[in-house]
Fold this protein.
Amino acid sequence: MNPETGHPSYLELDRAVLGLDSPGLREHLACCERCRAHVERARLAPPMPTWVRELRAPPPARPWWAPQPWLLVPAFAVAAAFVGLLLVFPNTPPPTENPYIGVKGAPVITVYIKHGEQVEPWDGRSPILPGDRLRLHVSAAGYRHILVGTRAEDSRWVPLYDAPLESTDLLLPTSWRVDASGGEREELLIIFSQAAVAEEELDELAAREPQDDALWTTRLVLPKEAVP
């Protein structure tokens, strides 16, 4: 509880979103319309922007699953356990009632998983499989730049996607295919910022995860199931 406002902190409200609330927090939500509205908004999947349907991997004549040659360069350069190909999903992922949403009181992140032809949001617990493709929908809450990183084989954090944000509500135009190597989990480092962040800063930012007006940093850990 925040003693200055009499309301629970964003961290406590995040626990309510994930079903980890305490009896005291449930009592507060029952009588506080403001906090209850925050939790209810966070439980809803963010709406998909209408222009997402126009995203295609050029040229249109190529099959959607065919990799573009220029997209293969960053994947091989990173050589991380996580990245295979950079692809674009053909359609907007369907909304759902129970997505995994990273909530810290500012940006919101939804992870979509494409397994075969099925696309659904990650629930925060289920393991991903080699060959699955991951894509992020973000609500940036005023930040102007986003960087998505992963761990390379030497455990350094390296960027997968680094670009200005053209919209505060955005389905990133890039997806990543899960590799069969890399152990029992995959990690994503997500940094929202007002200006570009240098690659040399990633390890330090991942260690302390600052969340302020200039930078908002979080890490997602996705368990991975090996394919026999």
